[in-house]
Design brief:
The protein is mainly beta. It contains no helices and ten strands.
Length: 143
Amino acid sequence: MKRVKIKVNNKQTSPDGSKDVVSYEGKGDYKFKNGKHYLIYNENNKGLEEVKTILRLDESKNNILLKRAQPNEMRQIFDENNKCEFKYNLGTHKMIFITDTKSVEIDLNDKKGKIKIKYDLLQGEQVFTSNNLKVEYRFIDKE
């Protein structure tokens, strides 16, 4: 595994027009296994205190898996060709969402990477939020 510096920025827009930005910046690990890239980090954000988060990037299929461990357990897939249902564990209750991915851009090289995802989060057939998620990482030699 290699150490990386990670920046996550998700701009969310609700149907009523209200906006929110969820961002995270920290260090984590990168590995390449079975033709897929993995970013592994402990996310510290509002509602997410030290939650182990894994991003699996599959360039051949142009899709991304976002997985979080308990207590905020979830497994969300971003795939332009399929709407993907997932359960999001919010401590005392679980919510069911559908990810309707509009676009996925994966740009990786041997020094850094950038991922951009545009998607709608649906509850039933209703848009819960429209999202622009950007994840950037770069390899670090020393901490």
